[in-house]
Fold:
Amino acid sequence: MPVAIITGASKGLGRALAGALAARGWDLVLDARTPGRLEEARAALASYGTRVEALPGDVADAGHRAALVAGAWRLGGVDLLVSNASALGAEPLVRLAELPLEGLRRALEVNVVAALGLVQEALPLLRSAPAGAVLAVSSDAAAEAYETWGGYGASKAALDQLAAVLGVEEPGLRVWAVDPGDMATDLYAAAVPDDDGPRPAPDGVVPALLRLLDERPASGRYGAPALLEEGR
Structure:
């Protein structure tokens, strides 16, 4: 069975994608910072009959990243690496004039440095996989100038660039940066707690990600709404 590492997998898009892959028979290595919620996800996903390793920790920690890849190796390798864990930099979001620099450093560390570190750790296994792929969860804030989203958007723009260059440097892999579009997640609620408008559930984005896995288009940046529309 193919093996996926998914960071930020205890809730939101990471959890929804993990469920869809488990239903397809994938074995999983899951990361999140909250042990209780991660264990709940592991137990639910194991009911599909798949093997699930749940390793709580912080992706900014090199030892934790090594443990995630070691867990995947025990399951047979790494076919898919999903960088979904994210830090906002400030909760709620604030204008750049007020953004704590420590918060910006944290966003860059989690969203960019840790994502690259995990790729570096997993590259030997990804290269040896029959169809190795990296999926980096981006944001429209990486490309648009939204007030208060500057620090987070800058980190996601950097992630997009890393993914673009990795796709050129590793032609044997597929490397996709994906803007999932608007979603109702805890991350968004923490970013803009006063905005209680209706938003789609993360489950609605998952078919776009599965389409990438099924069709394996060229490495590049994709928008989930467009993938969903084209897939109809």
Summary: The first helix runs from residue 12 to 23. The beta strands are 3-6, 27-32, 52-56, 80-83, 133-137, 174-179, 220-223. The radius of gyration is 16 Å. The CA atoms of residues 3 and 201 lie 25 Å apart.
